[in-house]
Design goal:
The chain is mostly beta strands. 5% of the residues lie in helices and 39% in strands. The protein starts with a helix and ends in a 54-residue tail after the last helix.
């Protein structure tokens, strides 16, 4: 940080010296000086001509304001000192009518023969956001990188270019232009633009004529926020190869492949497709037959090999050839191999298919065995491991045995076949030109995968733009560069070709497809084929191709609207999903705290803001640079401009009505009220316009109203009350406009008396006590009445022999004299009661 500050201070000082030198007045000082530092590769700060930072050139341009003319070169520059990097300053205000927030890109180049530089070209970039503030703005340091180094691999008529991309810490590298020329001195033309991305970059240049081909690269940096590019002046070093044509092949051999009965003294004769570099040609005979001696004829196109020892009777032999033509092309295939068998009258195997050691055999391949003579088919056995059921079929006079199988061979497995048997005269099978037993390996299918991490796959892409299709592939037996790649797409029922067959590719790899001008989803298909012809396939997620520019369908408030409420939110509806960061809305005069929120489809944006000024015209502009959500995104064809005028002033909701106490307990008070339906200007207030209700409370009708809580419905329960306390309540309605809360007046007042909490046992049950006492009294009374009405006891019967006195006769009944009380009769003697007799059984 101290280094940057020191750099800025020196830059400012250099600038003032420059101003003084050219005679500027104070009013002509730069209005925005931007300064930064430049390191050589690896942070090189060395002084002198070996550091590319000391010969660097710069160009400055704005990506969000591409109409600003590029600024070529800095106003001041100081080379590196060994302890500090090279640093520079440029006054963008002298050229640009810049604004706060503009994006400035700096491209750095150290180019051969410019500023005395004699080494390899270097480049990098940096990005700066212009900002109000200090007179000198620090844009940080940049570190140069060498241009990518090209590697060229050639074939008979093709050349494969590969390179490692730039790191580009500034993040502005977009693609590379691959140039081709027939001479190291040019002129060169662009043959392909390859997108920038991590990982090795390749391009296979095919159908080339014979002769030299030279290649080099330039770098394309982002020029604007759309698709424009800035190409570097410098390029990578030129790399040349010579395309020398079709490689040589063997056109015929004597003996031929799989010939039998070859005379023991026969020579081996090989004919090539073109003259050979005889010093490079080697021949090997297995097993040996003494010394092989070569002799050339036919302009070095015919090779005759003699052998010092006769071929062995019934022996099989194999010949292996390698070599190059005078242009350095290898003999193909390398090595070229064939077999034959010396004369013999015993049965042997001439050839097998698959041959011994054959790789990449298809899972469904038959086994074909060719014998030297007809065989006793019933004597022939062919055990195979791992075990699989084989079905035999004999042809060509019982000299060819074909073994088929219903179940497929197992991928990657090695199988061994051993054949035994006899010919028609009982001679046993002997070893021959073809090994017996022999082995072969079943092909393992390749892998193919479209990279799902790529941001374009499964998203949206503009019609006519370049869509990078990344993929990985592999195969156990076939080298990646020899795999065959096809890229196709399906659009509904339509299938189209993207590219193929592609060879010489790497993994991971990518292909840039120029998408068709369609409006439809497509699926991309990757097919990879290995050397055995076995394929693997993968498909991408659906990619939407969009060729229609977006537009603004509606704006609320509509253009020309008057009396717009000052708290109105602005709602912009687009014809399709938009790239949110590209939608730029500007207001005149200024509105603060603008915030855009989007619906889930990104088609409708709601603009919240501080309240508008009353009775003021406003203009909302969605610039034509706004893009849809595709990649890189279609721009609007024209800007959308909406103008409206606000009303007289701020309005708020009317207060709630009908506030009432819905319940009262010792620990809570329930409230209910009616929602307002109008604004204070008499217009209709929708329920959705009320953000929240605020509840206030006081302990007296005229006391301080305290906000105790919020409600989103028209009910509220206050659970913070004290017992035996009287409370007074009010409610307001709140509408949130942008960043401001618009609150209504207070509702009517509602009073609640909170009771005392009941004791733990509850009130004494006096009513039950009274009821119980009454019941007891009634029971006692009934008992007394019952006892008073009980009859006299019966007189006992006289004992045996005891005389029973006669009952006196009743005196005649006389009416008592009136008003004269009767005389009291003397008491009668009560006879002693006889002993009580118990009834029988007692």
């Amino acid at each position: 940080m101290m280094e940057i500050k020191r750099c800025l201070a020196v830059s400012a000082a250099m600038w003032l010296v420059f101003v003084a030198f050219v005679g500027m007045t104070a009013s002509a000082l730069p209005n925005h000086l931007v300064a930064g530092g430049v390191f050589g590769p690896g942070g090189d700060m060395s002084s002198g001509s070996s550091n590319p930072a000391n010969a660097v050139g710069m160009v400055f341009y704005s990506t969000n304001q591409p109409t600003y003319p590029p600024i070529n070169g800095a106003d001041s520059f100081t080379p590196a000192t060994g302890t500090e990097p090279a640093y520079f300053a440029v006054d963008v205000g002298n050229v640009w009518d810049w604004a706060n927030g503009d994006t400035m890109v700096t491209v750095y180049e150290t180019t051969l023969n410019v500023n005395g530089w004699s080494g390899a070209n270097h480049t990098t970039s940096s990005t700066t956001t212009l900002a109000l503030g200090p007179a000198v703005q620090d844009m940080g340091n940049a570190t140069l990188e060498p241009f990518p180094v090209l590697t060229i691999t050639k074939g008979p008529n093709w050349a494969l270019a590969s390179w490692s991309p730039l790191i580009d810490a500034g993040g502005n590298a977009k693609s590379y232009n691959l140039y081709r020329s027939t001479s190291p001195s040019g002129p060169a033309t662009v043959i392909q633009t390859v997108p920038h991305s991590p990982g090795l970059k390749t391009y296979n240049d095919t159908s080339l004529p014979l002769g030299p081909e030279c290649y080099q690269l330039s770098v394309n940096y982002k020029r604007d926020d759309a698709t424009a590019l800035y190409e570097t002046i410098g390029r990578s070093g030129m790399v040349c190869v010579v395309i020398s044509g079709v490689p040589p092949r063997v056109t015929s051999t004597i003996p031929g492949n799989n010939d039998i009965g070859v005379l023991q003294g026969a020579n081996i004769v090989v004919t090539f497709s073109e003259a050979m570099n005889i010093a490079t040609v080697t021949a090997a005979l297995t097993p040996p037959a003494g010394t092989l001696s070569p002799a050339w004829s036919g302009g070095n196109t015919i090779l005759t090999l003699t052998h010092s020892t006769l071929f062995t009777f019934c022996q099989g032999y194999r010949v292996d050839l390698t070599g190059k033509d005078p242009d350095g092309n290898d003999l193909v295939p390398t090595p070229t191999t064939w077999s034959f068998t010396a004369q013999c009258d015993l049965p042997f195997i001439i050839s097998t298919n698959p041959a011994d050691g054959a790789p990449q055999v298809r899972q469904t391949a038959d086994i074909v065995i060719k014998f030297s003579e007809p065989m006793n088919t019933g004597s022939v056995t062919y055990p195979i491991t791992p075990t699989i059921t084989l079905t035999p079929a004999w042809t060509v006079g019982d000299t060819v045995l074909t073994l088929s199988h219903a179940a497929p061979f197992v991928n990657g497995s090695i199988y061994q076949v051993t054949v035994t048997g006899q010919d028609l005269t009982g001679n046993n099978l002997i070893p021959g030109a073809a090994p017996n037993p022999w082995n072969f390996t079943i092909d393992t299918p390749p892998t193919a995968a479209i990279d799902p991490s790529d941001t374009l796959i499964g998203a949206c892409c503009d019609g006519g733009s370049g869509l990078s299709i990344p993929w990985t592939m592999s195969d156990i037996e076939t080298p990646v560069g020899q795999l065959i790649v096809w890229l196709n797409y399906t659009m509904g029922a339509t299938t189209g070709q993207i590219a193929g067959p592609l060879t010489g590719r790497t993994s991971p790899d990518a292909y840039t497809w120029t998408t068709p001008m369609e409006n439809a989803p497509v699926t991309i298909w990757l097919t990879v084929i290995d050397g055995a012809g076995v394929s693997a396939q993968d498909s991408s997620a659906s990619v939407l191709i969009d060729s229609t520019p977006p537009s603004v369908q509606s704006v609320v408030p509509a253009t020309g609207a008057t009396g717009v409420p000052t708290d109105s939110r602005v709602v912009i509806t687009f014809s399709e999903p938009m790239r949110k960061t590209s939608v730029e809305a500007s207001f005149t005069p200024g509105v603060f705290n603008v915030q855009l929120t989007w619906d889930v489809t990104n088609t409708t944006a709601t603009v919240a803001h501080d309240v508008f000024q009353a009775s003021t015209p406003y203009t909302l502009t969605v610039n034509a640079t706004a893009r849809d959500a595709c990649t890189p995104g279609n721009q609007m064809t024209a800007a959308s401009v909406t103008s409206f005028t606000t009303g007289a002033g701020l309005k708020t909701p009317m207060p709630p009505t009908g506030l009432a106490i819905s319940s009262t307990a010792y620990n809570s008070v329930g409230l209910t009220w009616n929602a307002p339906t109008q604004w204070t200007d008499g217009s209709t207030l929708a329920a959705a316009d009320i953000t929240v209700y605020k509840v206030y409370r006081a302990t007296s009708a005229t006391g301080q109203k305290t906000h105790i809580g919020n409600a989103t419905t028209t009910t509220y329960t206050d659970s913070t009350v004290a017992q035996e306390t009287t409370y007074f309540y009010w409610v307001t309605a709140v509408h949130t406009a942008g960043t401001a809360d618009l609150e209504s007046d207070f509702s009517n007042q509602a009073q609640a008396n909170v009771p005392k909490q009941k004791t733990e046992g509850g009130e004494f049950p006096w009513l039950w006590v009274i009821v119980i006492v009454i019941v007891i009294l009634l029971v006692v009374g009934l008992l007394l009445v019952f006892l008073r009405k009980k009859p006299a006891e019966a007189v006992p019967a006289p004992s045996e022999g005891e005389e029973v006195p006669a009952e006196p006769e009743a005196a005649p009944e006389e009416a008592p004299p009136a008003e004269t009380p009767p005389e009291e009769a003397p008491p009668e003697e009560t006879p002693e009661p006889a002993p009580e007799e118990r009834p029988a059984g007692q």
